[in-house]
Write a structure and sequence with these properties.
Elements lengths: L13 H15 L4 E2 L22 E3 L4 H14 L3 E4 L16 E4 L6 E5 L4 E5 L4 H10 L2 E2 L12 H6 L7 H4 L6 E7 L5 E4 L25 E8 L1 E2 L3 E9 L2 H14 L6 E5 L1 H8 L14 E9 L2 H17 L5 E4 L3 H12 L1 H7 L4 E6 L5 H15 L4 E6 L5 E7 L6 H16 L24 H14 L12
Parallel strand pairs: 2-4, 3-4
Antiparallel strand pairs: 1-2, 5-6, 6-10, 7-11, 8-9, 8-10, 12-14, 12-15, 13-14, 13-17, 16-18, 17-18
């Protein structure tokens, strides 16, 4: 278990690289294997600030069989492969390593089956998340995974990073929304685990090895997704609260009063609220002087019938002093306005670029104290930087956007060291939902023990003995 990872490209000669390209072209066709200036710059980075190397080639397969052929060739030559989805990651997980073959799943897009009786959908890995959401809705169902990059992220990447997003509090992470997977292993073996049942205890469920592994153990090519009953709308409110203790009281009150149907519980501290409402087209439904804000959303098939109970829950919270002020969306358009506050983070990243984006988690009861300590560090050591705090607090997830960052990178490392030390002290995670990739691998030991890291290495050695899959990521 103490083996070390190696970079396959270090021992790959120029002759061998040429042989790889030739073999790929022979197997897949000259037009399907792009090299040099044929490779668009869009494949060279994701939404993080991580810079990758120059790839040997770009291949965009159209089928699982082509993915298998590509990996079989690369495995035989010890050639590194970088799997890519929608390139919306914030941890550098899809950035190509130097001299690697980039395997883009973008052409493997489409929905192959919707089983209404089993409430499942079978999709290709390159299918955009929004396409899946809309197809589920048209079929009378709801696919619960949702995040701001829904229009461009791909379901294979969502699963490979175990994406979270806005609805985790009610429906869980991507892991809970996947019933079956098809994965191609490093040597080209196709591992078919296209299970459609919720209950299947016929031995260990191998799909969980690949969910969250960021393409380091295998390449996801198809998935069976779990659908939920359709929703036609939501009761949505933006509320202001006096402190984080009140946030926790309000969360438990809402979950109990609404029978566990709270679909989203998004918390915004004043710095985020001020920055979001400064984005063109985003309005402020409440005044900007409150200590903390919560966007609460309760989806259902008949939101009008639930409106009275939703309003009564809010009134009771105000009577208890947990809620100071509230704005209730009176239409679908107002609901979208409220969500525009939370989704304004994409524009905020651009306005404050370059940024460093923290994706942390600690036990919910400790979030308030943790944020206080993070804020204190900012004031004491990094007062020259702007920080915006928000998160899916209903599942313990804190996001922090800090920027613009200095170009020398010194402050960035110092800030990461300070933040992740606090998270380690709270027994938290340096990555709640964005993955490890390149950006966080030096900090992984803050959240995983040496024994856990050794097991991860053992799995890597067993499933990818040549270490060709997404080398340099996670470990």
């Amino acid at each position: 278990m103490n083996a070390t990872l190696v970079n396959p490209t270090e021992s790959t000669s120029s002759g061998s690289r040429a042989a790889v390209v030739a073999a790929l072209k022979q197997e897949l066709g000259d037009a399907e294997v792009l090299t040099g200036d044929q490779i668009s710059t869009k494949y060279l980075r994701d939404w993080s600030d991580e810079r990758g190397g120059v790839p040997l080639a770009l291949v965009r397969p159209r089928s699982t069989q082509e993915v298998s052929a590509l990996l079989r060739i690369c495995h035989a030559h010890g050639q590194a492969v970088t799997p890519q989805g929608g390139l919306t990651g914030l941890a550098g997980g899809a950035v190509p390593s130097e001299g690697s073959v980039v395997l883009s799943l973008e052409r493997m897009s489409g929905i192959t089956d919707i089983d209404t009786g089993s409430a499942t959908m079978t999709v290709l890995a390159g299918t955009p998340l929004q396409v899946i959401q809309e197809a589920a809705q048209q079929a009378g169902f709801f696919y619960a995974l949702d995040l701001g990059a829904r229009g461009s992220c791909q379901i294979g990447g969502n699963i490979a990073t175990n994406a979270g997003g806005n609805r985790v509090i009610r429906y869980g992470m991507a892991r809970q929304l996947v019933l079956g997977l098809e994965v191609v292993l490093a040597d080209g073996t196709v591992l078919s685990m296209m299970n459609q049942m919720v209950k299947n205890n016929a031995g260990p469920d191998l799909k969980h090895l690949f969910i969250g592994s960021e393409g380091t153990l295998g390449v996801i090519t198809r998935a069976v997704l779990r659908l939920h009953p359709g929703v036609s709308g939501a009761n949505t409110a933006l509320v202001a609260l006096p402190d984080f203790d009140a946030v926790v009281h309000f969360l438990r009150h809402a979950q109990q009063g609404l029978s566990g149907q709270v679909s989203a519980f998004e918390v915004m501290w004043p710095d985020f609220y001020l920055a979001a409402t400064a984005v063109p087209g985003v309005r402020a439904p409440l005044p900007k002087h409150y200590p903390v804000y919560v966007l609460i959303d309760v989806q259902s098939a008949a939101p009008e019938a639930e409106a009275e109970r939703f309003q009564a829950m809010l009134e009771q919270a105000m009577e208890q002093g947990w809620v100071l002020d509230a704005a209730i969306a009176q239409s679908h358009a107002e609901c979208q306005d409220f969500w525009a506050l939370r989704d304004a983070v994409a524009e905020m990243l651009q306005l404050n670029a370059p940024t460093i984006n923290f994706d942390l988690s600690v036990p919910i009861s400790k979030i308030g104290v943790c944020v206080d300590q993070l804020r204190a560090v900012m004031v004491a050591r990094f007062a020259h930087l702007k920080a915006m705090f928000f998160g899916h607090v209903g599942d313990g997830n804190i996001h922090v956007v800090v920027g613009p960052m200095p170009q020398d990178g010194v402050t960035e490392h110092q800030l990461e060291a300070a933040f992740y030390a606090i998270v380690r002290d709270f027994s938290g995670s340096v990555s709640a939902e964005h993955g490890i990739g390149l950006h966080k691998k030096q900090w992984l030991g803050h959240s995983r023990s040496q024994a856990e890291l050794a097991v991860m290495m053992a799995m890597k050695n067993a499933l990818d003995p040549g270490h060709i899959l997404n080398p340099g990521k996670i470990l």
